[in-house]
Amino acid sequence: MKSKSKESNQEPVEEKASSEKRLQPMIRALKAVHSSANSEEFTLADLEKQRKGQQLLGRLMTPMIGMEWETFDLDEMPMAWTRLERVHDTRRVVLYCHGGGYTSGSLEYARILSMKISYITGYEVCSFAYRLAPEYRYPAALNDALAAWDHLMYLGYGAQDIILAGDSAGGNLALCLALKLKEQNRRLPCALVLLSPWTDMTSSGKSYTENADVDPILSNTYIRNTRNAYAPDVDDYSAPFLSPLFGDLKNLPPVLIQVGSNEILLSDSVRLKTKLIKAGVSCQLEVWNGMWHVFQSFPMRQATEALENIGRFILGLP
Asked: Does 166 reside within a domain?
């Protein structure tokens, strides 16, 4: 499929000003999450500030009306179900991997997008709080993702009943999980939905330099610090289970990628789409003009439109 560039429609001046005012607290919280990891020496104090900022962001997002949130533990790993309170479709489920650079994130943060995806599709969404670095380094998060996958198998879901989704580092994790399942000769999910996925830990794409001054959220220092916390002392960051962009992508299920045009991670999505198509995998890439990292989590028109596209993609799967 061809990539799509989403133009931002003109909004009335008053409406735009009101929207910007409403978004400011959330943008400041999101910046706080990432700026804490921008120092050359990423300390434990920086890490704590990052995690508190992510918790604040989760609290700033008002839970959606008509949604049910059920938490539980799987061998001490926190997990949660997000579902519509009314009668809904239980034939398929979304397994959601939250972002946070592998060093932060929680069920509360995952709830923001899991609720939106559940609402737009009618499917239940299962999210999980994988172990975080630097306390738990690679491959702890991938092992936890496998455990969450196996739990859905235990509940009776087939691989083709599951859509894998994730944002940022969670997009990395969702893609790595699909590659791990393929390596183990297991059945693959029916599709992947990746929001601003981090696919290249070598930071070799052009956007890492070209968008460095326009990305309002991420920085190359943040990327380097979280990468080093997750996988320290690694000789080759192009290894497929760190940078799935460089993995064997053949036979993966259909993929939908959404990314903002102003992200330093833009190349991670553009190059992934190119490699997926070359590998014979159906891929739809949406580049949203003027948007930032994981903009879908914000209460704004573009986020609603992007989520509607996700709904059409998932509900259109065979």
From this structure: yes
Within a domain: 41: yes
Cis peptide preceding 134, ω within 30 of 0: yes
Active centre residues (catalytic): 168, 263
Alpha-carbon gap, residue 111 to 116, rounded angstroms = 8
Q: What is the domain extent for residue 78?
A: 4-9+19-315
Tokens representing residue 255 in the block: 């993929």
Cβ–Cβ contacts within 10 Å for residue 69, how many?
A: 17
Summarised one tens digit per residue, pLDDT across range 188-218 is 999 999 999 999 999 999 999 999 999 988 9
Helix/strand/coil (H/E/C) assignment for every residue in 56-120: HHHHHCCCCCCEEEEEEEECCEEEEEEEECCCCCCCCEEEEECCCCCCCCCHHHHHHHHHHHHHH
14 found inside a domain:
no
| Positions of E strands within the chain | 4-6, 67-74, 77-84, 93-97, 124-128, 162-167, 191-195, 255-260, 283-288
